Amino acid sequence: MKNIQLTCAHAIIKFLTKQKIYINGKKEPLFPGAFGIFGHGNVACLGQALEENKKELPTWRGHHEQNMALTGIAFSRAKRRKQIFIATSSVGPGSTNMLTAAAVAMSNRLPMLFLPGDTFANRMPDPVLQQVEHFNNPNITQNDAFKYVTRYFDRITRPEQIIQSLPQAIQTMIDPADCGPACISLSQDVQGEVFEYPEEFFEEQIHTIRRPRPDDFQIKLAADLIKKSKNPIIISGGGIFYSDATNELSEFAKKHNIPTAQTVMGYSTMKKDDPYFLGAIGGFGGKEPNNFMKKTDLAIAIGTKLADFTTGSWANFENPNFKLVSINVSRFDANKHMAQSIVGDAKVCLQDLTLALGNWKAEDDWHKKSRIAVNAWNNYLEKESGPTNQELPSYAHVAGAIYRKSEPSDIAVTAAGGLVGEVLQVWRPRELNTHETEWGFSCMSYEISGALGIKMANPNKEVISFIGDGSYLLYNSDIYSSVITNNKIIIIVCDNGGHAVINRLQLYKGGKEFNCLLKSSKTPNLVPVNFAEHAKSMGAEGEHVNSISELEEAFLRAKKSKKTYVISIHTDGYQWLEGSAYWESPTLSLPSSEENKKALKEHLDGKKKQRKGV
User: Fold this and answer.
1) 99-144, pLDDT tens digit by residue?
2) What is the homologous superfamily of the domain 3-207 according to CATH?
3) Which of 614, 2, 5 is nearest to 310 (CA)?
4) Where are the beta strands (DSSP E) in 398-540?
5) According to DSSP H, which parts of 141-275 are helical?
6) CA pseudo-torsion sign 590, 594, 598, 601
7) Confidence (pTM)
8) Which CATH code is given to the segment(s) 388-570?
9) Cβ–Cβ under 8 Å, residues 569 and 495
10) pLDDT tens by residue, 474-530
């Protein structure tokens, strides 16, 4: 076996550039690029290796470690986990800034490779700049925090360790059942150390995403359970995207006559004009679809972890005979909530399950009732999101204006806050893959950074980010990133004076307005923010509008622009679409006001409806 002498840093980059994957029959890089902010912990060694391999592995300059990692995560989601971005930072705050992004990837089951710098393996210069010392354990550094928000973690303290570690990290990230971020923490001295690596280590490796087949007995048990149901529904999650199973989903629903709802992450896995489209359910679901769902006696959940906003904190299934079939490539997710599990890839599971069901169909009357619910909710949405002259339009009015003027292929992006649910309802998908959000971790600031990553993955599509003023003020530097990289996005800033959705929750729980909206916080010198001018200072185009009609005209100008375009509009912080799902959140058990008493009663009434043993 021949060897090649390389520094550890150069060996890492050489190995990563040799990883390929087949996408639609074409060989592509598994790692299409890296984001980096260099500091003393990664610039001299890993930074030089990236510079010397910049053609094979393009490196994009970040402006904040969290944001650049969020962009990479969004890219991987838009590529349906078939390509993986790298994020490298220095030791210290550079690495800890990426922890939130790692948690986003972990929560959403998305791949991302983190390469933060670390302290010195030889410990000779300790304590080094930006080192957090643990007095009773010198092996611990701040990078150990990644262990809790990644699927795979390793600290490289000898250069030869990467021979075992890097392949394991890659297999974790491309494993559909175990998918999530990986962190390879790089001791600063080891990055520059030399080792005689086997040439075989750097041979081209071609990867594919495996499709685990389900167990026949699990299919039989699930089919038997489904055949006994009278009022079944399907709950389509993000796993449908990752399995490329949108066609199988629609065909399955049609053949077996089953209304199909979507989770937040599974939205746009089915078009709105599909006769089995039910729309979003749960905390972000419409009143009529939610009320319909409460009657179901069986849910077939596909590719979803069934989080509380989908299930209404498990109070949204009121039928006493309710049963659950859960199809998931992850054993952990498939076996939650007393489900009859089917562990396997969504596409092949649906194919095998439909064979086991044969010609069985749910009753026509149940399907007809679903159409009544959908039509009623659509009529409500058309009214609530239609043109308006009211002084402060609602989120729904803003989303409706953009939706009316958008193309079916335009992609809507949301993340934290009240905009997620309002946009989700209004943005009824006219094409598949046209709604992207981050709701697993509900991360403020993903709206802009994520939109950039989604645009990088879809350069020929218009990407529209809906963001509140609170999230905008948290992080916005990727407006500049989008400008200097020629990745144009359209950003709609809804300015309602703070964190309005949490103010809504605060009031709903019987509290007084306090510290959520700017007007109720300690602000002796409240200064209005001109978001459009701020965006212009970073090279984007921008304008502020004062009405829905002006918003529609501005959006058309934004569509024609070749640069990132920010449009701001003042919105009502108290007007929301109707909902009917319970959501469990902290409630005072010892009320101190009439408002608290009302909140406690509604809280306890909801808990009585919760499915036990979930």
Assistant:
1) 999 999 999 999 999 999 999 999 999 999 999 999 999 999 999 9
2) Thiamin diphosphate (ThDP)-binding fold, Pyr/PP domains (3.40.50.970)
3) 614
4) 411-414, 435-437, 463-468, 490-495
5) 162-174, 188-191, 216-227, 239-242, 246-256
6) positive
7) 0.97
8) 3.40.50.970
9) yes
10) 999 999 999 999 999 999 999 999 999 999 999 999 999 999 999 999 988 999 999
